[in-house]
Specification:
Blueprint (H helix, E strand, L loop, with lengths): L10 H4 L6 H33 L2 H37 L3 H28 L1 H7 L5 H15 L8 H5 L4 H25 L3 H25 L10 H4 L3 H35 L1 H38 L3 H28 L1 H6 L5 H18 L4 H11 L4 H58 L2
Length: 452
């Protein structure tokens, strides 16, 4: 009797167009939320290790360097989202070579950008850190942390979005979970055991990233039971492929760059109006916000391969249903999370620091910022939807417009007028106004985008 034939390599992708949308979303979003949620836990534990093991000043310094991490993340996210959109739609249309070419070109462009970031960043590090707001004692901590982070830039992504594009949710989850476990183990060992301070925190981060990068290389370049495998020829940049990937992913880069710019604006404004106490308070709030935002990001990421694949097959009803269910899910979660954070602001802040001044300032800030958390998932979800259907222009408008017209002006104007309280109000109001604008854009043009 002959052996049973193994499952076809593209079965995972095929289910994106046949399985009930609600079940697909539940499975995909639960996997992606678990993945990024684990990273959110790491963001909290990393902050705790630094704050308790080195001090609040060191934590403020690490937060000053955060824009560098955000910038690297913006590049990898842009290439991942753009490449995933091309890959999922190519697989939906049966074009395996096109999928391999898009993935390979995404790797090439990222590696080139990461190496450039390392060289340029290390050569101009001191003036860069001063521009980010580092001064006094925070400068030394920030310098030690940034050197390690920049040196490890080339391994700073595992391209989990490209894995999700072919329906491989479990491996995508492992690309987050395994490296984060490595990071959580390394942090106390390096910070406490080897007494490396903030250098240890940075080495733990880079160590986990290296594990993720290695897993990704094995998946795309070695594993055979897949719809496609990246070959050396697929790494050769092709203008049309790179242009398509960057064109679709650019809104994600702009959103990430916007987050970088906003973090710089907030940090430098806080230094001017609130000093080290306000800076440390914001560092705590930023880590809590990162944790709260992870399920919002997970819903957006879980939605994208479903929308992209079905858009490639012209299954418009499934695309629309996935969009509606995802928007409902992110709103329900965001409102509930915001209420919980506002109520528990004091204990949450106390988990990180004992200094009365920092603790009081951070708790007040967190209660105000929580109002914005309730709407913070809308704009990323809407932007992700338009990218998934290959219609990125509205994402450009949202990424640039909400930053330039709404968020930065609110922080600057209210911060100068009302000090640190004005900054917290500006951050919350920016999220609310951006969500309203995104909902309006979605209502006006979503139907035509889905049918493209």
């Amino acid at each position: 009797m002959s052996a049973q034939a193994p499952p076809r390599a593209d079965e995972h992708a095929a289910t994106l167009g046949t399985r009930p949308v609600g079940r697909l979303l539940w499975h995909a979003c639960s996997q992606t939320t678990l993945s990024v949620g684990v990273y959110g836990i790491y963001a909290l534990t990393n902050a705790w290790f630094v704050a308790r093991g080195v001090g609040a000043t060191a934590m403020a310094a690490v937060n000053i360097v955060a824009p560098l991490l955000l910038a690297l993340g913006a590049v990898s996210t842009a290439l991942g989202v753009g490449g995933a959109s091309v890959v999922s739609r190519a697989l939906g249309a049966g074009d395996r070579s096109g999928a391999a070419r898009a993935a390979g070109n995404a790797f090439t462009v990222f590696w080139a950008a990461a190496l450039t970031t390392t060289v340029v960043g290390l050569l101009g590090l001191d003036p860069l850190l001063r521009a980010l707001g580092a001064q006094g004692e925070t400068f030394g901590y920030a310098h030690d942390y940034a050197v390690v982070i920049l040196a490890g830039a080339v391994v700073s992504t595992g391209f989990s979005s490209l894995v999700r594009a072919e329906g491989r949710m479990r491996f995508s989850t492992m690309l987050w979970v395994v490296p984060v476990v490595v990071q959580i183990v390394l942090d106390p060992l390096l910070i406490y055991g080897l007494d490396l301070g903030v250098r240890g925190a940075a080495l733990g981060t880079v160590g986990g990233q290296a594990v993720s990068a290695a897993m990704s290389v094995w998946f795309f370049f070695v594993q055979r039971r897949r719809p496609y495998r990246v070959s050396p020829a697929d790494l050769r940049p092709r203008a049309r492929t790179v242009g398509t990937v960057l064109g679709i992913g650019a809104p994600s880069f702009l959103a990430g760059f916007g987050a970088t710019l906003l973090a710089v604006v907030v940090n430098t404004t806080l230094v001017a109006v609130g000093g080290a106490t306000a800076l440390a308070a914001f560092a705590i709030c930023a880590r809590i916000q990162t944790f709260v935002a992870m399920p919002q990001l997970g819903i957006s990421q879980g939605m994208q391969p479903i929308v992209g694949y079905n858009a490639g097959r012209r299954l418009v009803d499934r695309v629309v249903l996935a969009r509606v269910l995802s928007l409902r899910a992110t709103l329900v979660y965001s409102v509930a999370a915001a209420a919980l954070v506002a109520v528990a602001a004091g204990p949450l802040v106390g988990f990180f620091v004992d200094e009365p001044a920092v603790r009081s300032s951070a708790a007040d800030a967190l209660r105000i910022m929580a109002v914005g958390f309730a709407a913070a998932g809308v704009t990323p979800l809407v932007s992700a939807y338009f990218q998934a259907v290959g219609h990125p222009r509205p994402s450009y408008v949202l990424s640039v417009g909400t930053l330039v017209v709404v968020k930065v002006p609110l922080v600057l104007v209210l911060g100068r007028a009302y000090g640190t309280t004005g900054i917290w109000v500006g951050l919350a109001a920016g999220e609310l106004v951006s969500a309203a604008a995104s909902a309006l854009v979605l209502r006006r043009i979503a139907w035509s985008a889905a049918a493209r």
